[in-house]
Amino acid sequence: MVKLDETLTMLKELTDAKGIPGNEREVREVMRKYIEPFADEITNDGLGSLIAKKVGKEGGPKIMVAGHLDEVGFMITQIDDKGFLRFQPVGGWWGQVMLAQRVTIVTRKGDVTGIIGSKPPHILSAEARKKPVEIKDMFIDIGASSREEATEWGIRPGDMVVPYFEFTVMNNEKMLLAKAWDNRIGCAIAIDVLRQLKGVDHPNVVYGVGNVQEEVGLRGAKTATYKIQPDIGFAVDVGIAGDTPGISEREAMSKMGKGPQVVVYDASLVAHKGLRDLVTDTADELNIPYQFESIPGGGTDAGSIHLTHNGVPAMAITIATRYIHSHAAMLHRDDYENAVKLIVEVIKRLDRETVDKITFE
Ligand SMILES: [Zn+2]
After folding, report:
1. Residue 125 has pLDDT above 80, yes or no
2. Of 164, 168, 181, nearest to 4 (Cα)?
3. Which residues are catalytic?
4. Which residue from 113, 236, 246, 314 lies 20 to 30 Å from 220 (Cα-Cα)?
């Protein structure tokens, strides 16, 4: 077991925290603890997004750097008379990654461990083995013997269900395996951007933000952006790594460890051209690695940020991550550190004149 340094300790606490859309309190508290020392003021929007403000110069351009607090998970909908739980996925899940996985149900009386039940192969016909089980037919087993017992343990419809996974530093210590990298790595980037701007002279007001409810449609980003009214917006999130067997370069080009992803296009946003050029020029100048990415089948909070108020020049910078939207995902520590460095350097180059110039490019 690797001894966790300060950064890894923060990443473990962020990813261990439990929070599906609409249930982000625990994650918000961890993010708040880590970002507070570097912020001048902490506020929130009406949905619970965390907004940490750091003034470089009062009245300067407002730069928003936003991760999202929520993770994909499930919600209890019914308890059957035998004590098995029915549930609703919250966020995008593929059924094939769900069976036989351990989950935690967060109740008013504390956490309850469960497992998504599956049939042993012994009783599956040859035909059944070829067919994926549909999510609507799955159930969670908490070892209760009746509805009354499950209820007695605190289970109620509406309770959140969160994947369970131990934060793990792999043999290659740059490779980190954890639940909820989507999007606690974005929260970590927002924290570290404020941390690294400490004592740095720049004429901007920087907001490190943890949006709520991204996974159900980029919702908290709307309300947080409305409150901040930024001049420039960055969404920081996970992206797809295409460097595992069975993924073609046409599906996903990016590789772990080859630098943060500059997302030029996704289903929610055309990256703002002026801003995108500033980002890649800065990276080229400082030899910070990066990879271009386009995700026609996905979106990030930048999709909501750029459509708020009169419109906000925005883009997404993402970390190539394997196995997102499952129990555990893997990313490379260098990509995270380079993303922080790149955003900090871009902020140092921003002032009113530059913001006006790139806005109309
Ligand atoms: Zn996601």
Report:
1. yes
2. 168
3. 214
4. 113
